[in-house]
């Protein structure tokens, strides 16, 4: 890898200021599980990486109330998997994470980083979409909220500006709604999905009142 600058801001606001909207070689780094592989392969050669590892602890926290879950974008996938609040309010997330890659990846990868990377072969985005989850995005002009399906715009593409960061993910209260996720892999159960399908059903007395599932990605171009 070629040399690069590493910035370690102490706040999310400071991290946003260090990003350059006009320079694609300046990138944020959270867990870095995908970005480091790209750098080692020579696919991406950064000029500056803005590490999010030292920003406020609230962005690594999980909270629950009557409205649902609030998950900090820097929450690791392992913390998400082991959270009692997540298991109580959205058990499909807990079940999904048990076969999401391997424990070494889950210990490092973050929720926000996984969504921002927008890899089409991932388990978590379809589950969050089925649950009606949204992301709060922070940028130089303040915050904006997007549904997860509106965040993803294509293969490895999102609607994030180059100086915007995901701050947290919100999963609304599910009430009586129940969700499930099924994936097909070309290898072991914890391999990346060749096909992943998530659905959330709202039922009453054995009858399905409504169903929510991710829509196929829009064709590029």
In words, what does this structure look like?
It is a single chain. This protein is an alpha+beta fold. It has a single domain, classed as Uridine Diphospho-n-acetylenolpyruvylglucosamine Reductase, domain 3, CATH 3.30.465. The chain is built from 9 helices and 13 strands. It has helices at residues 12-18, 33-40, 77-82, 84-89, 91-97, 103-108, 111-117, 124-130, 148-151; strands spanning 5-7, 26-29, 48-51, 62-65, 68-72, 134-139, 142-147, 152-154, 157-158, 165-172, 178-184, 195-204, 207-212. The protein has a 5-stranded antiparallel β-sheet. Strands 1-3-2 form a 3-stranded parallel β-sheet, with no helix packed on it. The chain has a 3-stranded antiparallel β-sheet with strand order 11-12-13. Strand 4 (62-65) and strand 5 (68-72) form a beta hairpin. The radius of gyration is 17 Å and the shape is globular. 34% of the residues are buried. The model has no long low-confidence stretch (mean pLDDT 93).
Number of strands: 13
Q: Which residue ranges are poorly predicted, with pLDDT under 50 across at least 5 consecutive positions?
A: none
* CATH architecture grouping: 2-Layer Sandwich
Structural class: alpha+beta
In terms of DSSP E residues, the strand content is 25-35%
Distance between the termini: 32 Å
Coarse shape: globular
The CATH class name reads Alpha Beta
Whole-number mean pLDDT: 93
What would the keywords be for this entry?
221 residues, alpha+beta, Uridine Diphospho-n-acetylenolpyruvylglucosamine Reductase, domain 3, 5-stranded antiparallel beta sheet, 3-stranded parallel beta sheet, 9 helices, globular
